[in-house]
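Reviewer comment 2.1 asked that we show a complete input and output for one of the modelled complexes. We chose the D-xylulose case, as it is the one discussed in the main text.
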Amino acid sequence: MKELFLGLDCSTQGLTAIIVDFNSFQIIHEYEVNYDKDLDHYKTQNGVYIHDDGITVHSNPIMWLEALDLLFHNMMNDKVAMNTILAISGSAQQHGTVYLNDTFEKRIQNLNPNSNLSDQMLDTFSRKTSPVWMDSSTSKQCQEIREKLGGFKEVIKLTGSNTFERFSGPQIRKFYQHQPEQYDKTQMIHLISSFMASLLLGKSAPIDHGDGAGMNLMNITTSLWDQDAIEATAPNLRLKLPPLVKSHEIIGKITPYFTEKYGFSSNTLLIAWSGDNPNSLIGVGLTSKGKVAISLGTSDTYFGYMEQLYLDFKGEGHVFGAPTGDYMSLICFKNGSLAREEIKNQFNLTWGEFSNMLLSTPPGNSGNIMLPYFFPEIVPLVLNPKVYRFGFNENDPEINVRAIVEAQFLSMKLHSRWIGEKATEIHATGGASTNKEIMQVAADIFNSPVRIFELTNSAALGAAIRAAKSFYTSVDQDKNWPEITESLLKLLVKEILYPNENIKELYEEMLLLYEKCEDHVLRGGENPEFFRQRFKTKCLIRDRKL
Ligand code: XUL
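Response of the prediction step:
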């Protein structure tokens, strides 16, 4: 007898679904709707609209709803046994906000299965588009909130993170300042995760502690809305926010629109949705100390499970709630896969050719270093994008390919030092994690084994696992986290890549050089050329010996 659980992931570029059978520990279905390709009438690029200023980045909530209908429609056409799905949870790109007017609640309570979601919901928004995590247009609001709360250390202590341009609080403040009338007409502000959950539930869904911590509005110690942070953000905001809940909370059952239209059982349980990173934490099996994950998606993230609250007072990292009820650390880099693609496309390469170039170039890149800010960067903060090249130019494909990959992992290593603990193993996820040559560079730079999985969508998988965990608890068959994740994940491990110990020191030295380059460009530090020449000589001697 199958025991099916559905995990959904509303990510930057598409909506995906994974169905897991927890009886056989198998993933039995995977579906995807890609916004640019399958819903091209919305005219998004990589799922978003980048405004002329280059820093305002929005997406379209109606598009996500059309994607949900299309996804379920495709599943039904393939005769997926929707009526046997026991529970559903979900994941969404973090921080993005959805602004609803006073017709929203009534509309989702009375959805007509003979029509579709996008037509019925069209006039329920008080803001047509939603700012998403790629937006970096709120520096002014970040500063204002920070000052009102007594400086960045206070904000970190209170909310787990410094104020960040993409976080929901600064974004809400900008909306309130620029469009006060529409702000007044806003009755509810949802995160993308709680918005999507609301549609399935037929009423406003709560925000979970994982995604809630990415707003600069939730108190990281008490897991409650913080009145000071709310007052520093916008007037009457408390009334516009849904309640907060633990990530494992069962929030209700699926609404008739979906049972009647797609054949779900009316008993299907819904579990609170969370952000893609908290879901991925579970989806790659990080439920104990010492393991970290690298996710190479639209954004590259580095995250780990945290038993006890530990904050980054340098202000670059975040602490979110983990779905286990504990905490997780996270650092987010905006120049992830889109930056790698810039280089790949610039030289008209296939991914195979890109990988071959990594294989044919020496670690250390003969002393050539790139600072890869193709887009505004989150960590380190770079608002005006520019790519810096030390020792080479933009014309050489081999050097550029190695330079971007080394730069991304060196930056990750440099900016994750605050976490303190050396990772004993890195679990890799996201589209690019299947690229062995890219991941070998990660193993070498971090000097740590890297575990690669068959499945790259750990966010949707994590959502399905969370759905299963809450379901089993509700029927008194409680399974602990390792029990529920390990039986599934051990079947999904594709390969473990081990670091090359011979280049451990080379990369340690390169990390110091990378830091000097960053310091020079971003903070006016000393010119790194002398150190670079010294490193280059070492690389050349080493390469000649080989
Ligand atoms: C995390 C972050 C991104 C988004 C999109 O803080 O901004 O990882 O969640 O994936």
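The chain has a mean pLDDT of 96. We note this here for comparison with the apo prediction described in Section 3.2.
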